[in-house]
Amino acid sequence: MVDQRPPYDPLGSKAVPPPELAARVRAAIAETPASRATVGRRIGLALVAVPLAILAGLYGSRIVFRGRPLFRLDLWLLPEIEFGERLVVLVLLAGIATGIALIPGRRGLGARVILLLSASLAVAPLYTLVTMVEPIGSPVGDAAARRLHPLGLPCALVAFAVGMLALTAFGLALRRAVPSAPVNRAAALGAAAGGWAGVGLFLQCPAKNTLHLLVGHSLPVALFALLGAIALPRLLRP
Amino acid sequence: MRRYAGGEDAAFDELYATLSPRLYSFCIRLAGRNGDAEDLFQDAFLKLHRSRATYVSGASVLHWAFAIVRSTHLDRLRKRARRPEKLVASTDEVLEAILPSAGSPESELHAGTLARIVEQELQRMSERNRSAYILLKIEGLTAAEAAAVLGTTGDAVKQRAFRANEALREALSRAGWKEVGHG
């Protein structure tokens, strides 16, 4: 008699969970509430929160550091095209990093790791390049910049405030939604938040001093990728 | 899954029936011990339930669930590293759970021995190599799919699975199994 059964495949075989385990799972699930806010909706809210975070950070700095203007004083005196181009590049930089970090992707597991790593590493150097190579200014801005802290510590605090607000919004958007590569995703979210903080500083601070730009602007932008990688993964994991 | 993600609790039974055999096998192969595998399975399903609204419509439910299981497994390993306890992998328990009774007694014996060596070696290797091997060679995912589940690149997955494969081949050869060439 010939055995008609399919070839025995020990590695491909599937185990069936015992019924008591199924009962345990059902009982545990019945006691556990689940959020109904879809990740798309949360991401939408986070994107709305970004400009609000920038405004809140800048406005907050006006209250904390009395006399600090909401936007740089020479905003209307700057060469329009040059300023506009740089602003667009910075917004694009932060926007692309945000897209890479937030996008669920075709598989629903986020962007490819290589893209996440690129976003995490690229924002701060590119930001530095755009803001520090031949920084734009005006006589009014230069006069105001002379009164600023040489290391730009208040700017670093403003960057921290804006970045933290953006990072919180991004973290809540992807809460429990990142089962794979949470550290890479968190670093990319941090870099994106840092990028938006950089946009805020570009709109507010007229400084052209290299040390001020490096310590007060670029360093906080760079640190946000690290901060995201350290602080967010636990929030992001399911 | 789309119905369940949308808040339809009644869809859970259907989802459980579809996913549980694959996920349970995956848990057993990842965690190595039957008791651990059951806890991992339960934890993973609970997390799947809690994050159901984050499922992206149109994406593979199985791959998403694999990623949740693996994330849960890593969480458990991290916790265990903080509070170490002596663990001895019980291959017999694993095999009992994975191997259905099938085939002739002789083929069952051979398959059982083969599976025992493979399982022991799987438990011995690093978690990275093990998970890459399971997803690629046992669960049949492509390198790109496994890379998305494991959060790494396709090349890294292939490399890890290759290392695992080499370790298994060595273990089988030590046990006296010979490789038979195709064609």
Helix content of chain B: over 70%
The helix/strand class of chain B is mainly alpha
Proper CATH architecture of the largest domain in chain B: Orthogonal Bundle
Q: What is the number of beta strands of chain A?
A: 0
Give the distance, in angstroms, between the N- and C-terminal Cα atoms of chain A: 52 Å
What is the CATH top level name of the largest domain in chain B?
A: Mainly Alpha
Q: List the helices and strands of chain B in order.
A: HHHHHHHHH
The succession of helices and strands of chain A, N to C, reads HHHHHHHHH
- The CATH topology name of the largest domain in chain B reads Rna Polymerase Sigma Factor, Chain: A
Rg calc of chain A: 24 Å
Secondary structure tally, helices of chain B: 9
The CATH superfamily of the largest domain in chain B is RNA polymerase sigma factor, region 2, helix turn helix motif
Jot down its keywords.
heterodimer, A: 238 residues, mainly alpha, disordered N terminus, B: 183 residues, Rna Polymerase Sigma Factor, Chain: A, Arc Repressor Mutant, subunit A, 2 domains, 9 helices, 0% strand
How would you explain this protein's 3D organization?
Chain A is mainly alpha-helical. Chain A has one domain. In chain A, 67% of the residues lie in helices and 0% in strands. The longest helix of chain A is centred in the N-terminal third of the chain and has 26 residues, at 39-64. Chain A is elongated, with a radius of gyration of 24 Å. Residues 1-12 of chain A have low confidence and may be disordered. With 183 residues, chain B is mainly alpha-helical. Chain B has two domains: 1-98, Rna Polymerase Sigma Factor, Chain: A, CATH 1.10.1740; 102-183, Arc Repressor Mutant, subunit A. Chain B is built from nine helices and no strands. At the A-B interface, helix 1 of A face helix 2, helix 3, helix 4, helix 6 and helix 8 of B.
